[in-house]
Design a protein that fits this description.
Blueprint lengths: L1 E3 L13 H4 L6 E3 L10 H4 L13 H9 L41 H9 L2 H11 L13 H11 L9 H7 L4 H12 L2 H4 L4 H13 L10 H15 L2 H4 L4 H13 L9 H6 L3 H5 L5 H17 L7 H16 L6 H14 L7 H16 L7 H24 L15 H23 L3 H45 L11 H5 L1
Antiparallel strand pairs: 1-2
Helix pairs in contact: 3-21, 8-10, 8-11, 8-13, 10-16, 11-13, 11-19, 13-17, 13-19, 16-17, 17-19, 18-21, 21-22
């Protein structure tokens, strides 16, 4: 049985009428679906992922390399409590404490706390229990910095918005300030009668649940994705079609899309038999965790507690639908659907399900838009994501695990990884987005990506020439040393006094 909900567009200068809050969102969901239940194995086992297994499909092969799926030959294994030695890996060892071993098995009460709280907030609570004073995350800013941050927010819709600079001006609170500003600018607080204290508390908890130790998947990345999502929602085709509910949903999904990310990818969680991989049956493990973590914060803060229960549940479901769309292993599935809609000209943004699909595509674009930023910003993001890959590879080497693709710093470089990512993942997606929304922003993004790809190619050539020259120089030095040595005597065997003479 399919139930369709739709929330109409409301003027932003009026409060929400009660009859609107009694209605529901803008997407269809099966009444048999479960919010927190695991996916139906019968449905999942019928497909082998949304990626072609044809060896000639280079794009599919590249995406598979990014996120290798590990499955049982007879379907999904039932949930079980594993005794795998890597189950208790302390993710703090991924960054500053690589010298430490595995964390010892925690007691039963501690395990219960870890299931209820994210890793970051668990650390905060454990500090309080040990009597260590907790650092207050929000500090009073200098007036000059506050003023500069406010000036930057006036240009938040510009594609060259420097999120790194904004994060400095807000003292590391870019996600809180940016998201709150955008929600307030759209009039979401008044329109949906949101409690200001609950909203601020929710945003603070969201930012805290991002791991600041992650070089890439941290709160600054979430803020960058939220800013990009805002830019896309300002595009003419979306600006005139999205409902107020769509806008609220899109901003919240962008802010929470990587919530509580551990800094490792899905294959790492699977091969270490992590409990999250077992919980979600090796399918969209991280994305499911991000979604459920976001739902937990919504319920903990009671941000939508004044809504009818059906409305808040609908918001949670649609939030999950957007976040799950960021799974890179389903890239070809979404891209094929998007291309088919564009070829057939069948997109109708007055249709709630079509609007929701476009929001999914917008979030996918925002999540991987780093190659489309100006070079100064794109280069920083490229270095950060590559460093996170390499840190995972270092941990895998330390614990004698098979090193994941792209994670070995000895055989990979930033340039090679970025050129491959642009070629097989980013370019096909943004080319179709430009077909859908052929605007100045779309052409600007494609232009930046072409320039960035050429820049990485030039850097790769320079590094290759430099390494070849160094090898040639070393070889020449070795030959000269061997020629200067007497016959039958190596250069290492010549006494120091003989060399001087």
């Amino acid at each position: 049985m399919e139930v369709c909900y739709q929330l109409p567009v409301l003027p932003l200068d009026r409060p929400v009428p009660k009859h609107v809050l009694s209605r529901r969102g803008a997407i269809s969901f099966s009444s048999s679906s479960s919010l927190f239940g695991a996916p139906d194995p019968r449905q999942l086992s019928q497909r082998r992922g949304a990626i072609s297994y044809d060896s000639s499909d280079q794009t599919a092969l590249y995406i598979r390399m990014l996120d290798v799926r590990v499955r049982s030959q007879v379907g999904f294994e039932p949930e079980r409590r594993s005794s795998h030695p890597y189950l208790c890996i302390d993710f703090r060892t991924l960054h500053t404490r690589l010298g430490c071993g595995f964390s010892s098995a925690s007691s039963e009460p501690e395990r219960r706390i870890q299931r209820l709280l994210s890793f970051q907030r668990y650390l905060h609570s454990s500090r309080l229990l040990r009597g260590i004073p907790q650092q207050i995350p929000l500090h009073i800013l200098d007036e000059d910095y506050t003023g500069q941050a406010r000036c930057m927010l006036e240009k938040v819709g510009h594609w060259n918005f420097d999120i790194f600079l904004f994060d400095k001006f807000t003292n590391g609170n870019s996600l809180i300030n940016l998201t709150f500003h955008l929600l307030n600018q759209y009039g979401m607080v008044e329109l949906f009668q949101l409690d200001m204290v609950k909203l601020w508390r929710f945003l603070v908890m969201v930012q805290e649940d991002y791991h600041s130790d992650n070089p890439y998947h941290n709160a600054v990345h979430a803020a960058d994705v939220t800013q990009a999502m805002y830019c896309y929602m300002q595009e003419p085709m979306l600006a005139k079609s999205l409902t107020s509910f769509d806008i609220l949903l899109g901003l919240l999904a962008a802010a929470t899309h990587d919530l509580d990310h551990p800094g490792v990818n899905q294959p790492f969680l699977i091969k270490t038999d992590h409990y999250l991989a077992t919980l979600y049956r090796n399918t969209s493990v991280l994305e499911n965790h991000h979604w459920k973590s976001a739902v937990g914060l919504l319920r903990e803060t009671g941000l939508f507690s004044h809504w009818p229960a059906e409305d808040s549940l609908n918001m949670e479901r649609e939030l999950g639908s957007l976040i799950l769309a960021t799974d890179i292993s389903r890239q070809n599935d979404y891209l094929s659907r998007f291309r088919q809609h564009l070829d057939q000209e069948s997109l109708c943004l007055s249709n709630g399900s079509h609007r929701h699909f476009i929001l999914q595509m917008a979030l996918k674009c925002a999540d991987i838009c780093n190659p489309c930023r100006p070079w100064e910003l794109s280069k920083q993001w490229s270095e950060k994501v590559t460093e996170e890959f390499f840190q995972q590879g270092d941990v895998e080497k330390k614990h004698k695990l098979e090193v994941s693709p792209l994670c070995d710093r000895e055989i990979n470089s930033v340039g090679n990884i970025q050129i491959g990512f642009m070629t097989y993942v980013a370019e096909p997606l943004f080319a179709e987005w430009a077909r859908f929304s052929d605007t100045r922003l779309s052409q600007t993004m494609l232009g930046h990506m072409r320039l960035n790809k050429a820049s990485w190619g030039s850097l790769q050539q320079e590094q290759t020439l430099t390494s070849e020259e160094a090898e040639t120089s070393n070889a020449s030095t070795s030959r000269e040393g061997a020629a200067a040595a007497p016959r039958g005597t190596s250069s290492k065997e010549i006494p120091q006094g003989s060399r001087e003479s």
